[in-house]
Specification:
Elements lengths: L8 H29 L3 H34 L6 H6 L9 H5 L3 H22 L4 H18 L3 E3 L2 E3 L51 H15 L1 H12 L12 H29 L10 H26 L3 H23 L17 H18 L4 H17 L5 H23 L12 H23 L1 H8 L9 H22 L10 H25 L9 H28 L8 H21 L2 E2 L21 E4 L4 E3 L2 E10 L6 E9 L5 E4 L2 E4 L7 E4 L1 E4 L3 E9 L13 E5 L4 E4 L2 E12 L11 E11 L4 E12 L2 E5 L1 E3 L4 E9 L2 E8 L6 E10 L1 H32 L1
Antiparallel strand pairs: 1-2, 3-22, 4-22, 5-6, 6-7, 7-8, 7-9, 9-10, 11-12, 12-22, 13-21, 14-15, 15-16, 16-17, 17-18, 19-20, 20-21
Helix pairs in contact: 1-2, 1-6, 2-5, 5-6, 5-7, 6-8, 7-9, 8-9, 8-11, 9-10, 9-21, 10-11, 10-15, 11-12, 11-14, 12-13, 12-14, 14-16, 15-17, 17-19, 17-20, 18-19, 19-20, 20-21
Amino acid sequence: MDYLGEQLLPGKLGHFFVLLSVVSSLVATLSYFLSTQSKNIETANDWKKLARLSFVTEVISVFAIFIILFYIISNHRFEYKYAWQHSSLSLEVKYLLACFWEGQEGSFLLWSIWHCIIGLILIKTAKKWEAPVMTVLSFAQLSLAAMIAGIYVFGERIGSNPFVLLRDSGVLDNAPALHIETDVTQPLRTDYLSFIKDGNDLNPLLQNYWMVIHPPVLFLGFASSIVPFAYAIAGLWKKQHGKTEKADWINPALPWSLFCIALLGTGIMMGAMWAYESLTFGGYWAWDPVENASLVPWLVVVSGAHTLLIYKHSGRALQATYIFLIMGFVLVLYSTFLTRSGILGDTSVHSFTDLGLNAQLYLLLFTFLWGCAILTAKHRDQKIYFAVAALVLLLASYYVPIPKIAFITLIAGLTVLCYNIFSQVGSINEEEKTSSREFWMFIGSLVLFLSSIIIIFITSFPVINKVFGAKLATPENIMHYHNTIQIFFAVVIATLSGVGQYLKYKKTTQDYFLQKIIIPLVLSAGIGFAAVYFGNINYKTEGAGFQASIWLAVTASIFTIVANIGYIWLGLKGDLKISGASVAHFGFGLVLLGILISASKKEILSNNINGVPVPLAETENPIENLTLLKGVPSEMSKYTLTYESDSIHPKKQQWYYNIRFQSKDGKENFVLKPDAFVNYKGNEGLMANPAAKHYWTHDVFTYITSLPNPDKMVDTSNFRSKLMHEGDTSFYSNGYIILENLKSRDSIPGQQYKPTDRATLATFKVHSKYNATYTTDKVLLLDLSGQLQSYPDTIHAEGLVLRLNKVEGSVAEVGIKDSNTITKYITLKAYKFPMIRLLWFGVLITVIGTLMSMIRRTSQNRRNKVLS
């Protein structure tokens, strides 16, 4: 049957390229694998040529899928479920890309796009490591292609096809959700598209410019984590663990590790800035499970980059390097399972919902872990044992719940991989000097790794509960719970980031170290004491112990900043070309100091002093929320706030508010424009986007916490009549009204009026019980040849409407309507974040320093190849 208005060609082309992507990535994986295994150079090269051709075909397919899907979204082809589900006619053009990766299918495709670009670079640069490294990456491409395949094998669906039609998705069975009054499904009408007036729209919280750039950068960080992982697997696979040129996989792995650190770190902090501007938990970080799921792999890759440096300079820590680089990518896969399986749906504000791909997500984790475990086994009989163990786990997945078998697979797979690493890779028996740089770098790496394990363990509480039937409850104050643990890791890392620069590899004499460190140490102690004593840096509400740890962390972060500046200036003679590590550590010190100051000195400005009661969410403290009546100035800290005006989106139930802030000293006068929406896109309760005023020293940050529900704003109250003379008083629910003046005249100017027509203007003064006073002189009554026309005036802050019904001499019949449904108010929470820019500036410096190190290491690799 043909359905009117459908464009089926884009979907058919898209599905063709999806299948082509699956086939080409499969061929590329097998060809690269056979090239790696082949002992004949000519045969290996032939397989490599086929693999390259297949991978290029995969690249073309992935980009074709992206172009076709973006065409469907941008042209609002609502016959396709993906376009209907994630876009709308009212959506601004700048957010169309955000629609693309709002859904799981689009985000998997974005991940695959970055793999394509990385793969082309590796084909060009990996040289002898191309075949084993690209085997791993091509297999990852096959796994991602399967995620969007949407095909059925033996009755089981493989992946979720982004090109599925709306009429085939089951969505049309729920006509009310589509705002369709007519049943178009019994049977499906050929003109059903004419009833689909609009799409479901992009989640309003994602309609922010950060969500256009944050996901691509974050997914580039995720995608790049596979490269150091692939090099580590290649080293184990080929059993090359020495420092000779033949086995020197660490040289290309180090720049890619630094690249991953820079891009993944940037993506994480972009997400923090989005949360700061779009979410209402009052900051940039809330230890949300999805935030943790991206932070943990970053911490582990940072550990791996440092042990890579140790190995390059001393030949030590190779076993730890393998473990860290492998676990960095494995934790990306585990985090993917956590956030996309729906298991964190009750504990995360922005995890994906379950698309029915839990089994496939498990298989992604299983195949990578156990495929690598079998591949890297030292002996043939071990490969057989591990293959049998993998088969048992796979069969068990049919009978054991997915979360439980996934957790068991993760622990067992990592155990086998660690066994392979320790059985293959030897260690240096010579005792390491505690005065060497590599010793303390290794300690720092272990501290980072331990920090990441604790974070992922707490984040995995929902999984552990399902696996073991435990009852581990997420702490009520999750932010403080994490902070009390992580603050001590931060102190250690900050201290080592400053001290480590002044140590030499192999051994450092005591005199040399003390001579170099004494000045930064004394300066830091003095500045730290001044900052703590005079800066009033406190966290008193959390106890004296936590307060002391904050002071210690502030001093340690200042030490990091001072020590690294000193090392750049004195140790490296100001040569920025070789100071990337010091610049990155300096930036880390700024990040830590910005976090500590902005968090410990964060001030709630919106103390409720006017006592106006409004409904609030259970998580909000009424004392910390200020209600503003429209047009009524209210005091808040050093500001006077006025809710001046509001507007509504022309096509959505979304309201925008203009709130004027005026400082009492007259030095500040600005307008913040937060927005909010009620029951929009199926969300229950209030949702809001914050607004902030940025200064160099602080931010003033506010968001809406309560507003009248528009569904309940139907005015059913009536006017009551009151006869009044000038000076008379009439009471209403919140105060009283005085008729101050009544002026009447005939011979009204204007050609449309007759000489006998009469106009009467009344001036009223309203006194509210909240000590507010209002004057209105817009209440008008026209008597046009005996026909009365009344023009009322509304005082929104009081929910009061006044009108003149008639006037006889000096007596006016006044109509008074007293209705709470027309009272316009908003309730907001406002914070002051001091020195928040120190955090953002520190992130930028850290990324720049990491990229400087990456460029330097890449240049060194090129020079070494030329010399060899």
